[in-house]
Design a protein that fits this description.
Blueprint lengths: L3 H14 L3 E2 L5 E2 L1 E6 L3 H12 L4 E5 L14 E2 L10 H11 L6 E2 L5 H14 L2 H28 L6 E2 L3 E5 L2 H16 L5 E4 H7 L9 E5 L3 E3 L2 H14 L3 E4 L2 E6 L4 E5 L4 E9 L6 H6 L7 E10 L9 E4 L4 E6 L2 E10 L9 H13 L9 E9 L6 E4 L6 E5 L5 H17 L17
Parallel strand pairs: 3-4, 3-15, 4-12, 6-19, 8-17, 15-22
Antiparallel strand pairs: 1-2, 5-11, 7-11, 8-10, 9-10, 13-14, 14-15, 16-19, 16-20, 17-18, 18-19, 21-22
């Protein structure tokens, strides 16, 4: 693989060889749509745009789907409509934050940096703001459920989709009863669930510790066989159908008449009719240069993937009191979910993975914890738990799509549908006011 300036020149020659049109002032267009970022958001957006007849180039500075798309739990969490910024989280957060290896932590040295984000998070948890975010999430998840099935079928990847349901577990009646308000809100939104006692839990998932006295089963919960394999397969379909994936770093985007100029790190440039910023946690400076200073932070998520035979897992298990899940993938049993709000520069603290794995062993006594692979990824997170989806201030030819937090895979197909509509001038299926880049102005 070429690198540096030679790679940029070679890539640009490749684009030029496939150029489709010119701008009004005679400059050659390299693609209808250039997408910054080849994670699951960028890949699904490219696929959806290609279905609309758009020529697409994905630009990725690293490997395809090697960020947050690589190590997530593989869940399509359509029932996860409750924003993280909620009145309930404020009751749990102090206890969690006191434990440096707990399910939610902020390194002390990072507190001055993240303080404005935390203040916005607090504001978003107030009842009126929470209600707005909740309604937006419900609409987004309804769209996501429909569009995910459609996209997977269109890509011929139905064999990767699983419909095993998910089981949420509680260690006391008090913890269970504290969850009922959220479950009632989900039921109102059309999400089916079934509450269980200890015997019902054991029937669904043998091998759990008897400490879990209550549970809630979500029968409509779906997952993918492996999130990385899924992203790679979608990218493969994209290339088979004429899409292009180029390894390069985008340093900036500027309006260029009836096009957008993307400036690459090697000094070369790319022209596209439209551009999408889907760079995940690295999107903030690109948006700032286009006039949108957004409170994007990183949920540094940790997990351990054990060999496939580590436990006979029937469906995803969620332990809300401890902030982690256990999921079954073709690559193994994945234990993870702990969140560290620590930015992009701090080295990983894999004690967090180890602590979560130790808890999983207590909860699943037969779990074989040997042979695991630890991982840390950067989830792009907004303080109100909603992604940024909308046009840039500097030009309506650039559209943002980032900040999905731990719901990137879940909402990827819905986001792709919305982006394809925005780029092609089609009315969007949901109201985007709650997702607007200007909501923090």
């Amino acid at each position: 693989m070429c690198t540096g300036r030679s790679c940029g020149i070679a890539a640009r020659n490749q684009w030029r060889g496939q150029a489709m049109a010119s701008t009004s002032d005679g400059r050659t267009i390299d693609a209808d749509v250039a997408i910054v970022g080849a994670g699951i958001i960028g890949i699904t957006a490219a696929f959806a745009l290609q279905e609309r007849g758009q020529s697409v180039v994905l630009i990725e500075r690293g490997e395809v789907a090697h960020g947050a798309s690589f190590g997530n739990a593989g869940a399509f969490a359509f029932s996860d409509v409750m924003p993280l910024a909620s009145p309930g989280i404020l009751r749990k957060a102090p206890r969690w934050l006191l434990d440096p290896l707990g399910p939610l932590s902020v390194p002390p040295a990072y507190l001055p940096t993240i303080a404005p984000w935390l203040f916005r998070f607090w504001r978003a948890s107030r009842p009126a703001a929470f209600a707005t975010s909740f309604a937006a999430q419900v609409a987004m998840m309804e769209l996501a459920s429909t569009e995910t099935r459609r996209l997977i079928a269109a890509a011929g990847l139905d064999a990767m989709l699983r419909s095993d349901g998910a089981l949420e577990l509680y260690e006391s009646r008090a913890e269970f009863e504290a969850s009922l308000g959220a479950w009632q809100a989900r039921k109102t939104a059309g999400i089916a669930c079934r509450h269980l006692d200890g015997a019902g839990i054991a029937q669904l998932q043998p091998g759990l510790s008897p400490r879990f006295t209550h549970g809630t089963f979500v029968p409509g919960w779906q997952s993918i066989a492996d999130p990385y394999d899924y992203a790679k397969a979608l990218a493969g379909r994209l290339v088979e159908r004429g899409g292009r994936i180029v390894r390069a770093e985008v340093r900036g985007l500027t309006p260029a008449g009836d096009a957008v100029c993307l400036k690459l790190a090697d000094g070369s440039e790319l022209l596209a009719r439209h551009a999408i910023v889907a760079g995940g946690a690295w999107s903030k400076p690109l948006a700032a240069a286009l006039g949108d200073r957004l409170p994007l932070e990183t949920e540094r998520g940790y997990n351990t993937t054990l060999p496939p035979g580590a436990f006979d897992l029937k469906q995803q298990l969620t332990f809300p009191g401890h902030g982690f899940v256990v999921s079954r993938l073709t690559s193994g049993i994945r234990v993870g979910g702990a969140v560290e709000l620590g930015g992009l520069k701090r080295p990983p603290d894999y004690r967090r993975s180890a602590t979560t794995l130790e808890k999983a062993k207590r909860f699943l006594p037969a779990l074989d914890t040997t042979g695991g692979r630890q991982w840390m990824g950067f989830r792009p997170s907004m303080p109100d738990s909603l992604p940024v989806i909308g046009r840039a201030s500097a030009t309506d030819r650039v559209v943002y799509a980032f900040g999905h937090g731990h719901l990137g895979l879940t909402q990827s197909a819905a986001t792709a549908r919305i982006l394809a509509d925005l780029v092609t001038g089609t009315p969007t299926p949901i109201n985007l006011v709650a997702f607007s880049p200007r909501r923090f102005a």
